[in-house]
Design brief:
Structural class: mainly alpha
Helix content: over 70%
Shape: rod-shaped
Distance between the termini: 71 Å
Strand content: under 5%
Length: about 170
């Protein structure tokens, strides 16, 4: 039997990509603020070419920020999928090992010299399976969270693209 069972749950670069997403979202909020300021500056001439051009520029910058958000979210989603699959495989392997150990234990008599050792192995595998299952569930939660972030980023891009198209047609 292996001395170490299970995979340590770690998503490579997750913090880096999460920070990248936060930075892009912050940039988007800043651009929202700039759009509001622009709107108030041109409240009496909201249809002027100058206003529409500045608005278009800000919407393009916002599109770039949303694209950075989506890229970071998709990278983290991919990492989360990989970790999730690894966790699932580790759970399956432990379940197999535990089943084999339990089967071997059932075939032994309580008076067999290796019975105590095999019983401890079953207990160890059972404990490792519990821990690995918890890791698997955490990986599932992370994957779900990144799936949601990707969906939101895609939605933000669609909304911004609609605003870009509308503004371009109004120019």
């Amino acid at each position: 039997m292996a001395n170490k069972i299970g995979i340590v749950l770690a998503l490579d670069g997750e913090q880096k990509f999460a920070q990248g997403m936060k930075n892009a979202q912050q940039a988007s909020r800043q651009l929202d603020s700039e759009l509001k300021t622009l709107k108030s500056e041109f409240k009496d001439s909201a249809n002027s070419m100058e206003y529409m051009t500045k608005k278009q520029d800000l919407l393009k910058q916002k599109a770039e920020a949303y694209q950075r958000t989506l890229t970071a979210a998709k990278t983290s989603q991919s990492n989360a999928k990989k970790a999730y699959k690894e966790q699932a495989q580790a759970v399956e392997e432990l379940e197999k090992q535990l089943k084999e150990a339990e089967s071997a234990l059932k075939q032994m008599s309580t008076t067999d010299p290796g019975y105590s050792k095999q019983a401890k192995e079953v207990e160890r595998l059972s404990s490792a399976l519990d821990k690995q299952t918890a890791n698997y569930l955490r990986a599932e939660g992370r994957l779900s969270a990144w799936d949601s972030k990707v969906t939101k980023a895609e939605s933000d891009i669609r909304k911004n693209n609609t605003a870009l198209e509308k503004n371009a047609s109004d120019m």
